[in-house]
Amino acid sequence: MAHVSTSFVERQNLTMRMSMRRFTRLTNAFSKKLDNHIHALALYFAFYNFCRIHKTLRVSPAMAAGITDRLWSLDDIVAKIDAMAPAPKARGPYRPRNSK
Questions:
Q1: What DSSP letter does each residue of the chain carry, written as one string?
Q2: Is the pLDDT of residue 29 over 80?
Q3: Nearest to 48 by CA among 34, 63, 35
Q4: What is the pLDDT of residues 79-93, one digit of tens each?
Q5: Is pLDDT at 99 greater than 70 in this prediction?
Q6: Residue 62, Cβ neighbours under 10 Å: how many?
């Protein structure tokens, strides 16, 4: 409990708001759909924790926590997303519309 402080949370919220315009309603990047917003947040947190070197840590947070031993690139994140995505299902037959 000695290390609990609202300052850390407020700083994280400010960093996220300043880094992502999806939280600002009057921009083109504002998320209208919840699913799009969730996916954008996931990409932001993956980049923030695995790809970005932080000034105070001098490494990424994932490296500081011992989760990874190297700095990731965006290509690594895309490869991880592709590896975890379900295989596409076969499409059904094409049904033409009834033309009148």
A1: -TT--HHHHHHHHHHHHHH-GGG-TTSTT---SHHHHHHHHHHHHHIIIIIPPPTTTSS-HHHHTTS-SS---HHHHHHHHHHHSPPPPPP---------
A2: no
A3: 63
A4: 999 999 999 888 878
A5: no
A6: 19
Sign for the pseudo-dihedral over CA of 7, 43, 60, 25: negative
Read off the tokens for 72: 């990731």
Residue 27 has which token pair? 């921009």
Q: What pTM does this model have? A: 0.71
pLDDT over 70 percentage in the chain: 98
Q: Which amino acid is at 67?
A: I
Rounded mean pLDDT of the chain?
87
**Rounded Cα gap, residues 28 and 48, in angstroms:** 22
Burial (CB count <10 Å: 0-12, 13-18, 19+), residue 60: buried
Compute how many other C-beta atoms are within 10 angstroms of the C-beta atom of residue 50.
21
